[in-house]
Amino acid sequence: MKKLPDSEFEVMEAVWKLSPPVSTNEITSMIGGDKHWKPQTILTLLTRLVEKGFLESSKQGRERRFSPIISEEEYLQVETKNFMKRHYNNSITQLVNTLYDGKGLSNKDIDELKEWLNNGG
C-alpha cells in the first residue's frame, strides 16, 4: 500500500467519516468549502483513489457512489509502520525519546503510556 498524497488522504478521511456508500456531492459538501476545491477536483481525486484500490465505485441512478476498500485503521497502521521504519528504525524507544526531548509529551501522556505498557500494550 502506497502513502497517499495529502489531498487524496483528505478525501479518504471524508469517505471514512461519512456513511458509505457516499456521493461526490456529500464529499464535496464535507471538504469542498474548506479547501475551495471544485467538484471536478474532488472527482479527479476520487477517480485516482479508485484506480489505486482505496475505493470502489458504483452507479446509483445518475449518481456515482464510493465506498472504502481499505479502512482508516488499516491505512494508519501501514503508514505508522512505514514512518517508524523510515525515521526510527522501528524503535518505539527512539520515537518516545524524540517526543520527550522535544517536550511533545505531557505528564498525562507519560502516565497514559506507562499504563498502556503495564497492561501489555
What is the total number of structural domains?
2
How many DSSP helices?
6
Number of strands: 3
The CATH superfamily of the largest domain turns out to be Winged helix-like DNA-binding domain superfamily/Winged helix DNA-binding domain
Protein name: CopY family transcriptional regulator
GO molecular function: DNA binding
Family: Belongs to the BlaI transcriptional regulatory family.
Keywords: DNA-binding, Transcription, Transcription regulation
How does this structure look, described?
By secondary structure, the chain is mainly alpha-helical. The protein has two domains: 6-68, Winged helix-like DNA-binding domain superfamily/Winged helix DNA-binding domain (Arc Repressor Mutant, subunit A, Orthogonal Bundle); 72-118. Helix content is 63%, strand content 12%. It contains six helices and three strands, in the order αβααββααα. The protein has helices spanning 6-17, 24-35, 39-51, 72-88, 92-101, 107-118, and strands at residues 22-23, 55-60, 63-68. It has a three-stranded antiparallel β-sheet. α2 packs across α3. The longest helix is centred in the middle third of the chain and has 17 residues, at 72-88. The protein starts with 5 loop residues before the first helix and ends with a helix. The model has no long low-confidence stretch (mean pLDDT 89). This is CopY family transcriptional regulator. Keywords: DNA-binding, Transcription, Transcription regulation.
